[in-house]
Amino acid sequence: MADGQTSLRALVEHWLAPGEAHRVRVVEFRNNRVRQQCYVRVEVSKTDECMAMFFFRHQDGIWRVFPPARVRPAMGFGRSFTR
Predict the structure, then answer these.
(1) pLDDT level of residue 1 (50, 70, 90 thresholds)
(2) b/e sequence 15-39, b meaning 16+ C-beta within 10 Å
(3) Percent of the chain with pLDDT over 90
(4) What is the pLDDT at residue 35?
(5) 59 lies in a domain?
(6) How much is the pLDDT for 37?
(7) Is residue 1 domain-resident?
(8) What are 44-82's pLDDT values in tens digits?
């Protein structure tokens, strides 16, 4: 799964292992373009249990099971080119 071509479907199958008889559905979807956050909550209903997991889309377009790192304020100095 480290090849960078992992789809959301492949992640759901890997982490939640739904069988053919189990129901998979997206329970929540959020795409906040201003804050550059995109995630889905996927739920798998099995015979006597229900499992759910969040999947996050990163800046490079790849879905992962952990949220992207937040951009934090930073201070620095720039070069001043005067002639």
Answers:
(1) very low
(2) ebebeeeeeeeeeeeeeeeeeeebb
(3) 13
(4) 67
(5) yes
(6) 81
(7) no
(8) 887 778 888 999 998 888 899 888 887 778 787 766 666
Whole-number Å distance between alpha carbons of 60 and 54: 18
Count of domains for the chain: 1
Say how far apart CA 67 and CA 70 lie, in whole Å: 9
Residue with tokens 């951009």: 71
Of 22, 12, 79, give the one whose Cα is nearest residue 52. 12
Is 77 contained in some domain?
no
Name the residue range of residue 22's domain. 8-64
* In-domain check, residue 82: no
- Give 7-11's long-range contacts (Cβ < 8 A, gap of 24+): 7/63, 8/40, 8/42, 8/55, 8/63, 11/55, 11/63, 11/64, 11/65
